[in-house]
Amino acid sequence: MSDKAILELHGQKHEFPIIKGTEDEIGIDIKSLRSITGGAITIDPGFKNTGACESGITFLDGEKGILRYRGYSIEELAEKADFLEVAFLLIYGELPTKEELDKFHSDIKSYAVVDDDIKKILDAFPKSAHPMGVLSSLTSALTAFNPSSVDVSSPDAMYNSIVKIMGKFPVLVAWTMRKKHGLPLDYGDSSLGYVENVIKMMFKKPHEEYVNNPIFVNALDKLLILHGDHEQNCSTSTVRIVGSSHAGLFASLSAGISALWGPLHGGANQAVLEMLKGIQADGGDTKKYMAKAKDKNDPFRLMGFGHRVYKNFDPRAKIIKAAADEVLADLGIEDPILEIAKGLEQEALKDEYFVKRKLYPNVDFYSGVIYRAMGIPSDMFTVMFALGRLPGWIAQWVEMRLRKEPIGRPRQIYIGENYRPFKTLEERG
Ligand code: SDX
Description:
single chain; 429 residues; mainly alpha; 3-stranded antiparallel beta sheet; 18 helices; globular; binds s-citryldethia Coenzyme A
């Protein structure tokens, strides 16, 4: 196979090198395109055919439904690892030894407090504020209380910024929920595991001893692993491009949280539950909503379905669907919402519109069923997605900085007015 691509433009042929990845993906390296063609660029709205970088963190095969973090399959990690191990793997490239994991967790715990003045910012938000907007603001505010986190010029400085945000982010997640529900803000218990402590910080009632539920801990641990990273998705690309200006890690993460909020991205998990509840309230008529999803004149989309990369089942959706069955069975809950979701899936798998467009359930389709069973409010679902995606965002940001990637600055094709002289008010009629 040739290691070059040839582009013919205005009768002239131009050669471009081919980059081949370790999974035999190929990319046409067009770094020289503008200079050798005298200014031509490519146009690719949504970057559906455009690679932003070379990365060694996550591999996806959308046709085969493959997802691996640093070469390990998502199926094995979800079954055999815990979230903090996977966070270490994503960020540092290897599964940690026991000593490495213990030190990572100990260093994270040493920073698992936030400046009390953060509460003043939290107090300023109305209870109606969406938790993702609050979380994005608080994450950016962390820079003000940890100014040294912007400096990542040495390995120690980079490590300190990483363990600081890994320690402080769960506190912000818990406080964001507790504030909205009128609960006092407190810390968990540093003797607990990372995920166990997140649950305790979120749910501990001020007047009761908190007893952790292992079903919840295991379910959340698995969900956070499954959300860990997903190569160059919208929010990760946002974190990378903001970081490419050498803005600090916390500011870059804050931007990623805002991108994840959108209902076409991480906000879909909340939208799925609202959709399923709407269908339930409307008598459970899934056929009616399938028709709406296919009607081009109807803005309704089947939330939790479709994916830019997966043109087969999202492997995470398969695992989450099975986990939803297990969690509900373990809790002795029969949730009609899950049955409606399964009904929609079954109908879509037989429907020509969905089959032709290769629209399958994605990571967001079933996750809300588990969060709901755990008592997490639906407006916190995307916050939980952000908690899971945190190590992936960090890993991608660190890779971008260590590889000294250039500042992200795409070009455009201008389609506006040509030159025209200024008109005075009198001349404008
Ligand atoms: C996440 O990128 C990632 O990796 C993201 C993520 C991660 O881990 O970071 O995996 C997390 O964001 C998952 C996706 C969550 N979003 C949703 O569930 C929202 C519903 N899905 C769609 O909005 C859509 O499928 C997207 C946004 C996910 C993907 O959109 P694309 O790739 O731009 O595809 P498209 O909009 O061009 O759709 C292609 C066709 C269109 O029909 P035609 O114009 O060809 O006739 O499929 C149709 C679309 O109308 N279509 C849907 C549909 N999704 C696509 N029709 C009905 N319901 C849907 N859900």
